[in-house]
Amino acid sequence: MSNTLQGQKRIRLIICGFALCFCIIAVRFGQLSLWPAATPGDQTRLEVKEKFPRPDIIDRNGVVLATDISIPSLYADPRKIVDTDEAVELLTATMPELRARELRERLSQKRAFVWLKRQITPSQKELIHSLGLPAVGFRNETRRVYPMGRLAAHVLGYVDVDSRGLAGIEKYLDDRGALYTASLAEPGSGTALPAVLSIDVRVQHAVTSELTAAIAKYRATAGAGIVLDVRSGEVLAAVSLPDFNPNDPKEAQDQTRMNRFSGGVFELGSSVKTVTFAMALDRGVADLNKTYDCRRPLPAGKSRIDDYHATRRILTVPEVFTHSSNIGTAKMALEVGIEEHQAFLKKLGLFDRLRTELPEAAEPLHPDRWTHISTMTAAFGHGISIQPLQLASAVAAFVNGGLLIEPTFFKRDKEAAAAVSRRVISAKTSETMRYLLQLNVTEGTATRANAPGFRVGGKTGSAEKVIAGRYSRDHRLTTFVGAFPMDEPQFVLLVLLDEPQAAPDTQGFATAGWNAVPAAGKIIERIATILGVEPKITPVDALRLATQVQAGTIGD
Amino acid sequence: MLRFLNALLVLGLLVAAYFVYALEHDTRSGEREIGRLEAQIKDERENYKLLIAEWSMLTRPDRIEHLAAKHLDLRVTSPTQRIGVEDIETRLPPAQITAPGSQPDPIGDVLRALDQAQQ
């Protein structure tokens, strides 16, 4: 009896012991589930080192320029193949581009995974899927596509097969702009907001197509075009021809397809006179009534500086500008002084590499030892090589009231632009520059840029290229840099043509006034309306338009 | 007493097990549903991106330009064809104000008159 009692007591004790244990466990469970993060340090943190998704790239109006799409790729597991011959036959029948021998070799390997074909079309996927082969499967891969093709290729750049940016904005998104890319990513969702460029595809296309036409007409080897908003520094269009297709960037390696608007430096010739004039007028060294003796060539070391459109008379300052006199401009620069001249060029950033978002930024070339001759030649754009974008940005400063604004390829508002702008000339000098630029289009070297109604102003440049160590008379780099509408400039346009030849309607001439300038005029005619510039028709314009209508060049 | 307790515990175990398994089953099917929907959302996103890319490709300015030149009888606008709002009045042909009913389509007449003025 006592034994059983003892046994019962023992069992009860055991039951109590177990019950206690279970109670403790239950209480602890309850505690953990009700107050999970009692001490924040204890909480296990899930650390995911995530690769940021590559953002889409869109233009300023939201048109997609680059995006990732997912494309199926075909793979096989050779171990699972029942009948290799049958599989080869079926696959080659649906996809003729697969070669039977190669395919058989791949399928005979003793591996668990072989790629059969990367990046197939959805319809091919459907067909292969319906074959019902057990050993093949699909895996989705992301691929970067550029729906606009060649348009804005130099701005966008391109990526390699692993979606790493190799040039242009694509490279910026991976390198210097990595923080920006990270800021676009939406945490957790694996998606990202698009990167918004300053480019307007309509303007970009108009510049591209007019430039293509000009290159064909004047048989130039290359060309470039830039449209810049003078108040925000945004690049609305940046074209460099010949270009490449970022969807298939093999040809991008070719040096002749380089980025010419910022990735190369050139002696831009007389268009740089705008810089000299802005400097002399701002320093008060010259004013509109001053005259320069341009009767005799100016000795410079062993050679002499002469004028292309030689007048051999005494010219006023506006005449020096409209006749594009090298002699007058060189004299003007000398009067400013070589130190001041260097200081002004430095202030405009023409001695330093202009850094925009694009990795393609060439370093300007200038003489190591700056002499009187350097000042004389640099005054009319020789002996100093700069990026075309640098000149466009300087001219934007000359017409916008005197503020140099760092150009950008991303959309930017006025406040952000004000933060990166600094005064380089006074508002009064800017006004005088506007007058000179417009005068040059109404009666100077750039009359053919005059798109009726849009009040164009600008300066031409026909630089002689250095061929085998000598300046060549037959190889020219012609430029036009200008702004419109001149009563309140909003946009700067730069057009550059490399080695243009005389065309049937240029009377044997191949200087800027005969090729870069009319091309610029056509570009402005097309883009001014897109950019919302209101035309103002003067009686002279009306007359010109009437003759154009009669000639059938434009419609009514 | 002990036997009753045991029976109760076994019953309790069975009931608890039933609820736990029912809960797990629900959770599993819920998870499957979530997975399915997420895959569907991903698919739709991909499709959407594909369509956006295609739209962008189809509206390429050079393609539109080419198509317009081929199919439309339009020419480049001349700056003279653009006027400000304040000048619209000066370009309208004189309107003929007539009694309602006698003139069924006054706006149409204005447009026709404009058309004739153009030619």
Keywords for this entry:
heterodimer, A: 556 residues, alpha+beta, 5-stranded antiparallel β-sheet, 37% helix, B: 119 residues, mainly alpha, 4 helices, elongated
If helices are DSSP runs of H or I spanning 4 or more residues, what is the number of helices of chain B? 4
Overall average pLDDT of chain A: 87
Tell me, rounded to a whole number, the average pLDDT of chain B.
84
Strand segment count of chain B? 0
Strands, helices and their partners?
The complex is a heterodimer of chains A (556) and B (119).
Chain A: H1 2-34, E1 57-58, E2 64-76, H2 84-94, H3 100-108, E3 114-117, H4 122-131, E4 136-145, H5 153-156, H6 168-174, H7 178-184, E5 185-186, E6 191-192, E7 195-196, H8 201-217, E8 222-229, E9 235-241, H9 273-283, E10 291-293, E11 298-300, E12 303-305, E13 314-316, H10 317-322, H11 326-336, H12 338-347, H13 372-379, H14 388-399, E14 403-405, H15 414-419, E15 421-423, H16 427-443, E16 457-467, E17 470-484, E18 491-498, H17 516-530, H18 539-551
Parallel strand pairs in A: 1-7
Antiparallel strand pairs in A: 1-2, 2-3, 2-4, 5-6, 8-9, 8-18, 10-13, 11-12, 14-15, 16-17, 17-18
Helix pairs in contact in A: 2-3, 8-17, 9-11, 9-16, 11-13
Chain B: H1 2-58, H2 61-71, H3 88-91, H4 106-118
